[in-house]
Amino acid sequence: MRPSRARIEPVPEGEWTDEMREVFDQTRALSGDRVFNIFTTLARHPKLLKRWMVFANHILAKSTLGARERELLILRIGWLCRAEYEWAQHVLIAKLLGVTDAEIAQVQVGPEAPEWSRHDRALVCAADELHRDACIGDATWATLRASYSEEQMIDVVFTVGQYNLVSMVLNSLGVELDPGLSGFAGAP
Hints:
Layout: H1 18-31, H2 37-42, H3 46-62, H4 67-80, H5 84-96, H6 101-109, H7 118-133, H8 138-145, H9 150-173
Helix pairs in contact: 4-5, 4-7, 4-9, 7-8, 7-9
């Protein structure tokens, strides 16, 4: 069962250190000048936050995957992990990238949704297989590999792995939704 409230509170702005502000300045560029609860909560462990941000920035901004494909993977693993915070943040990001409400609803259904293209179905299936088996199955691998480079295949695995980890952190720490997010209640 998920915690009903934050187990670790975000660091209030009046307590931000120079080290925290340096990391938060990096996040502002991606968030429209906001500092999200995930970052202010993880700031309770500033050295970890600083080092994790390097990897997180690769996955979110420097991956070899297309942004839409990345968001489908993130949404699916967030949904599978029941990570409401992750889901809510990435629904907004996905919509900005042109992912439709219908596609977001399909993410909830999973690879069984009949509307998926063969490629998108394989992406969603890859997230399911990684979540369930910690391995992409041969058939899914072959479908994705038909159009993806080796780097892209590695980025698929690391994207799902990164957001599985983030989902565990968000759920376990009880990171609360940022203002304006509706979470699962607002899911299509």
